[in-house]
Amino acid sequence: MPSKEFETLPNIYLVGPMGAGKTTVGRHLAELLGREFLDSDHEIERKTGATIPWIFEKEGEQGFRSRETIVIDELTARTQLVLATGGGAVTQAPNREFLKQRGIVVYLYTPVEIQLQRTYRDKNRPLLQVENPEKKLKDLLDIRDPLYREVADHIIETNQGAARDLAQKILNLIISQNVQK
């Protein structure tokens, strides 16, 4: 049940690279706010009945991105939500517009070294199933960082601190700046 104290705040959307902690921090943030938490990647899997690696294999990245845009449009039209987006969601212009226009966007910035530590064993990340995952993460961040910054109302570094503390920091920042969209 949404907390009365925070019910006037718009949706909060977390963007950033894989391994930034969007899902973990997002769950804690939703708990603090008394809101529903959703992860766009999990919603894509739920709606399709297929895993993301399977979608990438059968439809390619563009097929996945098309599905992702539909899901982000649907989810951002809802209210009282904390949403963690997939790392590449910002590569699609419609997604950037949905996020910017429909809520508060927080970019969870994480250096490549930390991303690698957090993701290198995860076989559910199709873009990292390459010979040099560190180079791939760096290349992705080089392309996506300007897009994350373009949509972000706030930027938080996630390379230090517990997820619960980062969620509280985000909430404090939003409240102190009284961002209302």
In short:
This protein has 181 residues and is an alpha/beta fold.
The first-to-last residue Cα distance is: 22 Å
Q: What is the CATH topology descriptor?
A: Rossmann fold
Bin the helical content: 40-55%
Question: Tally the helices: what do you get?
Answer: 7
CATH classification, class level? Alpha Beta
CATH architecture descriptor: 3-Layer(aba) Sandwich
Structural class comes to alpha/beta
Global outline: globular
| Average pLDDT reading | 90
Overall tally of structural domains: 1
Q: What is the radius of gyration?
A: 16 Å
Determine the CATH superfamily: P-loop containing nucleotide triphosphate hydrolases
Structural account:
- By secondary structure, the protein is an alpha/beta fold.
- The chain has a single domain, classed as Rossmann fold (3-Layer(aba) Sandwich).
- The chain is 54% helix and 13% strand.
- It has helices at residues 22-33, 40-48, 52-76, 93-102, 112-119, 133-151, 163-177, and strands at residues 11-15, 36-39, 81-84, 103-109, 154-157.
- It has a 5-stranded parallel β-sheet with strand order 2-3-1-4-5, sandwiched between helices.
- Helix 1 crosses helix 7 (163-177).
- The longest helix has 25 residues, at 52-76.
- It is globular.
Q: What keywords describe this structure?
A:
single chain; 181 residues; alpha/beta; Rossmann fold; five-stranded parallel sheet; 7 helices; 5 strands
